[in-house]
Design brief:
Radius of gyration: 14 Å
Structural class: alpha+beta
Shape: globular
Low-confidence stretches: none
Mean pLDDT: 98
Number of helices: 4
Strand order of the largest sheet: 1-2-3-5-4
Bound molecules: adenosine-5'-triphosphate, magnesium ion
Order of helices and strands: EHHEEHHEE
Largest sheet: 5 strands, antiparallel
């Protein structure tokens, strides 16, 4: 899904909610996934000049999960450790989006290259 406007973020949130419901995640887990998606989509828009979100379902044995990938071709993150720290912002935010998202999911991967862009993949298992 494109992440080029605030309207796209609303649509992305709705899609994540819909898939979470279809996979029968608990209401609490649905909200965790939607909240993480919202933060990462907002970052892609605010700092990454827009990007894309991809949703995938995961199956591992009897386990079901949802994986979300956020990719942009913006300026990248020069210091990932610093960006992940609660309270760090290069803008006017609270600096809680990345750390908060990480705490809401079971898997969190971030890759970023200055001048190339950023890709963040998160997953939550039922
Ligand atoms: N996709 C991205 N591309 C480039 N820089 C990013 C990206 N996502 C995050 N950052 C950098 O990491 C910092 C921390 O992000 P985080 O989401 O934790 O906080 P914030 O967006 O500044 O504030 P908040 O999310 O609490 O409103 C950002 O201020 C920005 O400098
Ligand atoms: Mg943020």
């Amino acid at each position: 899904m494109p992440l080029k406007s605030s309207g796209d973020i609303v649509l992305a949130r709705q899609k994540v909610r819909q898939w979470s419901v279809e996979l029968r995640f608990s209401l609490v887990d649905q909200t965790k996934l939607v909240t993480a998606a919202s933060e990462l989509a907002r970052n892609a828009l605010d700092y990454g000049q827009g990007g894309e979100m991809t949703i995938e379902t995961l199956n591992s044995g009897a386990r079901t999960g949802l994986r979300l990938t956020f990719e942009d071709h913006g300026p990248g993150i020069p210091d990932i450790e610093q960006a992940m720290r609660d309270g760090f912002t290069s803008g006017s935010g609270m600096g809680l989006g990345l750390g908060g998202s990480k705490r809401l999911v079971n898997e969190f991967h971030i890759e970023s290259e200055v001048g190339k862009g950023t890709r963040i993949t998160v997953a939550r298992w039922k």
